[in-house]
Amino acid sequence: MMWPxxxxxxxxxFLLIRPQKKRQKQHQDMLNxxxxxxxxxxxxxxxxxxxxxxxxxxxxxxxxxxKIRVLKNAISMKRGGGEAGEATAG
Length: 90
Known about the structure:
It is a single-pass membrane protein. This is Preprotein translocase subunit YajC. It is found in: Cell membrane. One of its GO terms (biological process) is protein transport. Belongs to the YajC family. There is one protein chain. The chain is α+β, with helices and mostly antiparallel strands. The protein has a single domain, classed as Roll (SH3 type barrels), CATH 2.30.30.100. It has 1 helix and 5 strands; from the N terminus they run αβββββ. A hairpin with a 4-residue loop joins β1 and β2. The longest helix has 31 residues, at 3-33. It is rod-shaped and about 65 Å long.
């Protein structure tokens, strides 16, 4: 009687919980690898270059002389590093 329930729990774990934990670990590893000069994209779609790394946030330059502070968890992806690859807007 309990076998179908146990089977459902195991399937649920391998299809939903385990992949989510893997994605969370990959995101945390990506956040830990971000350093000054890296290009990033925030969850809101703002592109910028990391100018300073704080304990729980980054200072990102989004345009010449325009800097914003964002929480580390607000970074959705890293686009590469360095000033040379920075694209100009407009």
